[in-house]
Design goal:
This protein is α+β, with helices and mostly antiparallel strands. It is built from 7 helices and 9 strands; from the N terminus they run H-H-E-E-E-H-E-E-H-H-H-E-E-H-E-E. The strands form 2 sheets. It has a 5-stranded mixed sheet with strand order 1-5-6-7-3, sandwiched between helices. The chain has a 4-stranded antiparallel sheet with strand order 2-4-8-9. Strand 8 and strand 9 form a beta hairpin. The model has no long low-confidence stretch (mean pLDDT 88).
Length: 273
């Protein structure tokens, strides 16, 4: 029998040794190779009643560290502005990234001292309307017992040998999504970005709405979420918008000084501070 654990560890080592930023011409070849490996992917329903998103104002188009005035700027960016691969997006592909606790977002985005940031809190329009989720699962260390149990039930319909392969497939995806990547070398996100595209748009008949995956920067592995923009717009509405000034020592300590708060957005999408 093939030793799946050894094969997986060998593959991880080879991937970690590659730096695609040094040879961008290899991206298409790599994606063609990844297309030959179709992992077992399942979707499970999960109620996600609230999501938070941290926006660094100065990184928005035509914003000079100023107050955000339009609600659309707090959502996913237009696809034409997406110039880099991300953990769950290809170049030219927009998804809504969110989290569930503020410290995770701060660790992920690392705002600088003096930045004005906007924290938008979103809630389901219909509080009983679940998302179809693909959970990035490290099967043996998954903290979300609901999703782990659903994954376990899903694989029970297959023979034991195939169950092991399915688990290994998902351990490999968990590795792709959990890799530490230098954001200045965004091409190295291609592994997770490629499979995120497939998961959201191809696998499971395209029915998966979102991917939940553990934060790389947060040592507690708190989850992040990447949602299809049309699904987010259909299912979620603003609950509260807060603006803060960032005060940081340039290390791990980040403090937020509150500036203003509102939940008032008019029909044209203009934020009424």
């Amino acid at each position: 029998m093939i030793n799946l654990d050894n094969n997986l560890e060998d593959l991880k080592q080879k991937i970690n040794q590659l730096d695609l930023s040094l040879n961008e011409s290899e991206l298409d070849l790599l994606r063609n190779e990844l297309d030959k490996l179709t992992p077992f992917v399942f979707g499970g329903e999960k109620l996600v009643p609230k999501i938070e998103r941290l926006t660094i104002n100065r990184l928005l188009p035509d914003n000079n560290n100023e107050t955000v005035k339009e609600i659309k700027l707090l959502k996913n960016p237009p696809a034409e502005y997406v110039k880099k691969h991300g953990r769950a997006n290809l170049v030219g592909q927009s998804v809504f990234y969110g989290t569930f606790i503020l410290p995770t977002a701060l660790l992920e985005l690392k705002p600088q001292n003096g930045d004005i940031v906007t924290i938008s809190k979103w809630k389901l329009k219909n509080e009983t309307d679940p998302l179809m989720i693909y959970p990035v699962i490290d099967y043996y260390n998954c903290k979300d017992l609901q999703l782990r149990n659903e994954f376990h039930r899903y694989i029970q319909k297959y023979p034991k040998e195939l169950q092991e392969i399915i688990i290994t497939d998902n351990l490999l995806l968990a590795f792709y999504f959990g890799r530490e990547v230098d954001r200045n070398k965004h091409h190295n996100y291609i592994y997770s970005a490629h499979y995120a595209d497939k998961i959201l748009n191809s696998y499971f008949d395209g029915k998966i709405d979102a991917i939940i995956y553990p934060s790389v920067q947060d040592s507690t592995n708190s989850p992040n979420i990447a949602i299809k923009p049309d699904v987010f717009n259909e299912k979620y509405e603003i609950e509260e918008i807060n603006e803060f000034l960032v005060v940081t020592d340039g290390k791990r300590s980040i403090f937020l000084e509150s500036r203003k708060k509102t939940n008032n957005v008019d029909k044209l999408g203009i934020i009424k501070w």
